[in-house]
């Protein structure tokens, strides 16, 4: 038995050596690429040792040393980072079709119904169909105009809350109010109901509490932006060293249960109204689209939940953070505050609320100074491409 074990070990070592040598030979025979500059990687971990708990700041420091386009290694995965306006245009506009694919990550698998949403969906017929649905049905000018009253109602409610909170002369935690207002707008537009309100007495069992609803979305947003070691060093994935996969599964379980009940409510209303049914929100529209026999790729129930999840999480936290930064910058600069106040009096006046068109410029400047998402969802190249030649 010991002899057999020794021979088995010997052959295993020989096989591993042969595989390694063959891989090395094949790599040498590949086409030689001119790669961007970057720090020298360590064995196994690559450049992960250079990435802190705030990856965008770490990458910014690296780009200051190596330039606007940098080659990094996250474990065994080569990563190219563009960190300038010119690089962003080259990747996202000039070569958008080339870099339209998505890597398969734990976030896509565990929080996005196995990549059946839009954010993590790989490039293909399903992705193109989902994008087309959003452009033609969910975010069309006609659809947004029909939902505009929700925005106005929630803004008025926000102003009443702020006035009431500040009437006593106490400090107001603006973020909490902005967060609740954004969640109110998004949940009403997408889900058809305001899930951030307390359940009235005698109203039956609540589908979720406002606190749980807010926590689910914040946790989901966070888990979609973490650097999970298992994505880059696959043989460590099963250990879940950072605990991220456990958290992803937990929040997915909660939001899966919540969205199931939302879809059940919408299906029941459709059944009761029959031929007289009229779509009131974006979930209604997705359910109608799923019944279309002419779809190139069938839209499943999990697909509806994945897209719904994207719509809710993508609009809530980003809106809150942007407005909060804008208010912070205005309050820190008295001259700008005085100018803004003057424009409110002379241009907007007292007869109407401020609209999106009135604050378009300040929102763009705020997002330039304080990007809501400093690192975009990673993209993956579908084919060989030359980007930024001569700029590195």
From TrEMBL:
Protein's name according to its UniProt entry: Uncharacterized protein
Keywords: Heme, Iron, Membrane, Metal-binding, Oxidoreductase, Transmembrane, Transmembrane helix
GO terms assigned for molecular function: heme binding; iron ion binding; monooxygenase activity; oxidoreductase activity, acting on paired donors, with incorporation or reduction of molecular oxygen
A Pfam family that the UniProt record links to this protein: p450
CDD domains the UniProt entry points to: CYP71_clan
Chain segments annotated as transmembrane: 6-26
Family membership: Belongs to the cytochrome P450 family.
Source lineage: Eukaryota, Viridiplantae, Streptophyta, Embryophyta, Tracheophyta
Keyword presence, Lipid biosynthesis: no
SUPFAM superfamilies: Cytochrome P450
